[in-house]
Design a protein that fits this description.
With 337 residues, the protein is mainly beta. It has a single domain (55-333), classed as TolB, C-terminal domain (Neuraminidase, 6 Propeller). It contains 2 helices and 28 strands. The longest helix has 6 residues, at 4-9.
């Protein structure tokens, strides 16, 4: 087992296996489970490992567990404009094709597909639709699509990336320029910022924060008094925590988890997607893999595939953590809680 001070200091260590040891700066990225705090044992058993469930995707993203019809996982591949379905019985099948933009893809669009996925209280699929540049709702039974919002103050969004929904139906989402071929310089761009937004149940849209260069993954604490935001920024690779008031609006922000020390290792990935467990533990992707964080922000460990991990989610009744890692779908077994 390695310790936090060893990892952050970047001391040289031996090769990483299932229970990994810290690597020196610019050495090979970790693989398997990096154990940094004994508290990780309450989440992952000593024999926990990263299992590959499927391969062959362009860029796997946005996993969400659907607890119906026997239970299955949906995950997106934004460049391929496909949403896939995985279950233990059938493996991977195509669920939506096209998943995002429903028309021929112009050269100005880099990622035409769906990105982040979530479920609302009625088990309808909510999509951060990068290609359509909108937040979309999909009825899982009929596949009927409804555009919930595609503009703020009359201007088109850049390319919505990730979203999370509160119990009252409020949707928080991010809007970086990743889906546009020329990014910030795209001729399609209408918004002056890469924003963190809120869509109220009555349809009102609010810009909560337009100060960040690359707002990305997003999550909510179980009591919904904290909104987490990942910054996929090479200069500022951090997860922020926004305190929310009774009205669900931010009252302040702080750094919840700083990944700069991990980024200097040269490991693949930046802060990206995340999921928050019902007990408040945060699974946040970042340099080296999924950073497993206690509710107070302590880094307990890292689940690594050796490649960048774009996103993750808890599923199978809390027994599994699913990882979308570049060209593959992986799973780490969790302790029942």
């Amino acid at each position: 087992m390695i310790r936090r001070r060893t990892l952050l200091a970047g001391l040289a260590a031996s090769a990483l296996t299932t229970t990994a040891r810290a690597a020196a700066p610019r050495e090979a990225p970790p693989r398997g489970i990096v154990r940094l705090d004994p508290a990780l044992d309450a989440l992952l058993g000593e024999d926990a490992q990263v299992d590959v469930l499927a391969r062959g995707f362009t860029w796997a993203e946005g996993p969400v567990w659907v607890d119906r019809d026997g239970g299955y996982l949906l995950f997106s591949d934004p460049p391929a404009n496909v949403v896939h379905r995985w279950s233990a019985d059938t493996g991977v099948t195509r669920f939506l094709d096209p998943a995002g933009l429903q028309t021929p893809v112009p050269a100005t669009i880099r990622e035409a597909g769906a990105n982040g996925l979530a479920l609302d209280a009625e088990d309808r699929l909510l999509i951060a639709d990068s290609g359509t540049r909108a937040i979309v709702r999909l009825d899982l039974a009929t596949r009927r699509r409804t555009i919930l919002v595609d503009r703020f103050e009359g201007k088109r969004f850049n390319s919505p990336n990730d979203l999370v929904v509160a119990r009252n139906g409020t949707i928080y989402f991010t809007d970086p320029p990743y889906g546009l071929t020329d990014g910030d310089d795209s001729s399609l761009r209408e918004q002056p910022v890469n924003g963190l937004y809120r869509l109220d149940p009555d349809g009102r849209v609010r810009l909560l924060d337009g100060s960040h260069r690359r707002p990305n993954g997003i999550g909510l604490s179980p009591d919904e008094d904290m909104l987490y935001l990942a910054l996929s920024d090479e200069v500022r690779p951090q997860v922020l925590g926004y305190s929310l008031g009774p009205d669900g609006l931010p009252t302040g922000a702080r750094v919840f988890h700083d990944m700069r020390a991990h980024a200097t290792q040269g490991w693949p990935g930046l802060p990206d997607g995340m999921d928050v467990a019902p007990d408040g533990h945060v699974f946040a992707t970042g340099p080296g893999g999924v950073h497993v964080l206690a509710p107070d922000g302590r880094l307990l460990g890292i689940a690594a595939t050796g490649k960048a991990i774009a996103n993750c989610c808890v599923g199978e009744g809390g027994r599994s953590l699913f990882l979308t890692s570049h060209d593959r779908l992986c799973r780490v077994r969790l302790r029942p809680r």
